[in-house]
User: Fold this.
Amino acid sequence: EVAEPGRMLVRQVGQKSIVITRGDDGELRGFLNSCRHRGTELAESDCDIAGTIRCPYHRWGYSTDGILKATPFFDEVPRDDFDRDDFSLIPVRVGTWGPLLFVCLADETPELDVWLGDLPERMAGYGFDQWRIEESQVLDIEANWKLISENFQEYYHLTWVHPELAKVSRVKDHYRYQGAGMYCGQTTTPVSGDDRDDWLVLPAAEGLDESDATSGRHIALYPNVIFSVLPNHVFVMRLDPIAPGLTCETCTLLLPPSTPELTGGELDATLTFWIDVNNEDIDICQRSQRGLTRGRIQPGPLAPRFEEPLHRFHNMLADCMTSDSLAGLTVPPGDDGSEAARLGTGPNPAPPTIEH
Ligand code: FES
Ligand SMILES: [Fe+2]
Assistant:
């Protein structure tokens, strides 16, 4: 989306609008989408800026690193108390991991590599940097973003909500995939347990080890990115909260670099499969929202075997909401095997090799 210099993205993060540029130096930078003159929105949607961010109102111009370069007619009456250097765009933190681009509005939260924990190392074998976007779709879901993430984190509902998926991705093939980091992870090994290989039509990425080549990884990265990694594609969902009961979900399907350009139709079965599964999830999340909103009951206990990730998620959420300072946020540790009896499943039977 922003691979080339000169491209600028516009994204909503909570109540704020952010622009993200890639400079000629290759650097990604993020700024508030507000002109430093009288605050006007700089861009409405993704665009090419050819090196200059121009405000549409009075044409103040900023370089891709946010520095104010042009103020038309402003010097006709010289003022000695005005220095352009004092009016750069307001920066926000950006960072990347593989194809994911992160924006953080707070200055004090832990660095992205601390936040991600062991994920980059754990998933290094996929070589995500080179994966490409193949399809994307934007959906409105009438549910709170947290319900959608929670639903993704557990496979307790698999048999009843996804009868077709459950034949392929069997309950008994699910395991924990939880290291340290602000995420909840699980894995399916083997990724397909019957003949219906709709999501394995395309070739697997080259160079995967045995574990990655036979597994599906399902990661809910706190707060609002959930994604499934299969040997041959990745399905990412970004959850943007619009209102307490409304979430905008952006779904993106990525393919590895070893997959040739598609000529048409090769992805149809996989896409249909995902759309069916996603629609089943959306339907049940909307029902959760309605039941919670209208019933207003106190929820009951979670099943440790299936729903421990929700507990982890709730703890991360509570920590973020109650910490005096996000600088001191504790990134939760991963499994050390000691909880296997209580949690009911051990780790992935073909675990990734992580050297410490
Ligand atoms: S508000 Fe942007 S140039 Fe005036
Ligand atoms: Fe589901």
Notes: Residues 151, 157, 161-162, 281 surround fe (ii) ion (ligand 2) (CB under 6 Å). The CA atoms of residues 291 and 297 lie 9 Å apart.
